[in-house]
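STRUCTURE:
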């Protein structure tokens, strides 16, 4: 690792890596708390629709008021401060900014901001994995053609999983499976913002219920966020989804190599080379001990007897046969680690994970029986959850991406558990996100699988 040394070189030269942050939510605020303390890095501007909230978030993150009182982006760039604005477009276009961090979490906004950043010659760190799941493969292709970096966000689980996959392959191992842990039960697919607390109260003591966004939190509970994140991993690594999506098998961190291997070898996977998310809850509702609910992992194969012997000698968590082994990271630190992506893009010209093909998709799936005329309310809502499916299946059937299943009206009844198709909804064909997604579907008519 030499990113810190490179940052110090930029500091010594009086040319810190300059950053524009769009979205001062939880992830963005966590990044701000560390960016202020990172030698060789300057946040020139923060764009948020609620400037008052953004200033409050800077205060919460430990910033002295004097550091974000600049009156313009020009002033911030020249004097070393930070300007807070509602104008994301101005932030993206400003010549003093090298890297744009998109942290709004809104698919349409993320696609629009990424396109503007690419057009302006800026590197883009896409915290907005929701947007990446909708159109990341084409955004990455556009960025590469423009000579800029499009990167997944270090600290979020997809980028960390990509790093583990890259480690295994660079060490000569065949990757069998990669993914993360979460809290899951089959009944959670029907969870809504109203019933969310029935689940959260079992394991989280949140005294102030107004302190969280129930819809956002529910996307983690109902399986949507797992589908989105594993889609990002597949499109960046060449791993593929299983035919019926994620199985969420319960597993301790010490059982990963036994559980996340092909069924032919006694595991739960359809085949090798896929993503999977393990659950911290058994199907009877009991908690899994030593679970991996906040962590990430990779399972790989020892293709020689000697390698398998070394798995055992060096406590590499082998499966019962000794053929497979696992490596896991117990936690992820979200925005606190995001500076790694910013520095890598600016100083190495390398992403911390980026789509290389369209292999996986996450599609809108009915939580309950839906009626014609109902308005879908998108991620974490009352109507649909996001299921990971092979991109080829999504393209062949014409399934509706979960990220575009918001504020669109159903044209027919949909049974519980059924996927929603493009033809099932009245969508705006001129919407920027819709047009770009349709362009991506045409560009990747056949998924570029490894």
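SEQUENCE:
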């Amino acid at each position: 690792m030499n990113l810190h040394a490179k940052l110090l070189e930029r500091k010594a030269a009086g040319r810190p890596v300059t950053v524009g942050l769009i979205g001062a939510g939880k992830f963005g605020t966590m990044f701000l708390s560390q960016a202020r303390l990172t030698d060789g890095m300057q946040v020139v501007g923060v764009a948020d629709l609620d400037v008052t909230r953004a200033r409050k978030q800077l205060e919460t993150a430990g910033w002295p008021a004097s550091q974000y009182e600049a009156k313009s982006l020009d002033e911030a760039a020249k004097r070393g401060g930070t300007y807070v604005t509602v104008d994301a477009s101005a932030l993206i276009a400003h010549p003093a900014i090298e890297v744009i961090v998109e942290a709004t979490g809104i698919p349409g906004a993320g696609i629009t901001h990424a396109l503007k950043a690419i057009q302006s010659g800026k590197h883009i760190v896409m915290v907005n994995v929701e947007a990446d799941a909708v159109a990341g493969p084409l955004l990455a292709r556009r960025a590469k053609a423009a000579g800029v970096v499009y990167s997944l966000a270090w600290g979020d689980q997809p980028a960390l999983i990509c790093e583990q996959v890259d480690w295994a392959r660079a060490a000569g191992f065949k990757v069998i499976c990669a993914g993360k842990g979460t809290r899951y039960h089959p009944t959670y697919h029907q969870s809504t913002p109203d019933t969310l607390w029935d689940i959260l109260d079992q394991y989280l003591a949140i005294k102030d219920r107004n302190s969280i966004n129930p819809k956002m939190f529910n996307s983690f509970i109902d399986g949507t966020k797992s589908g989105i994140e594993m889609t990002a991993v597949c499109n960046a690594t060449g791993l593929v989804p299983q035919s019926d999506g994620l199985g969420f098998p319960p597993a301790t961190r010490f059982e990963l190599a036994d559980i996340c291997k092909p069924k032919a070898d006694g595991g739960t996977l359809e085949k090798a080379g896929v993503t999977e998310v393990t659950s911290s809850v058994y199907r009877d509702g009991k908690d899994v001990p030593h679970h991996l609910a906040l962590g990430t992992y990779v399972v790989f194969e020892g293709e020689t007897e000697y390698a398998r012997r070394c798995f055992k000698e060096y406590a590499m968590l082998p499966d019962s046969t000794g053929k497979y082994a696992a490596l896991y990271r117990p936690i992820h630190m979200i925005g606190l680690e995001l500076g790694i992506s910013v520095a890598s893009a600016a100083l190495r010209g390398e992403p911390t994970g980026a789509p290389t093909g369209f292999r996986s998709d996450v599609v809108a799936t009915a939580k309950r029986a839906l009626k014609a005329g109902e308005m879908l309310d998108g991620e974490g809502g009352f109507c649909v959850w996001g299921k990971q499916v092979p991109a080829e299946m999504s393209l062949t059937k014409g399934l509706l991406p979960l990220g575009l299943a918001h504020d669109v009206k159903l044209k027919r009844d949909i049974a519980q558990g059924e996927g929603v198709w493009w033809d099932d909804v009245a969508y705006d064909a001129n919407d920027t996100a819709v047009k770009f997604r349709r362009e991506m579907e045409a560009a990747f008519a056949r998924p570029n699988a490894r």
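REMARK: Residues 129-146 form the longest helix (18 residues).
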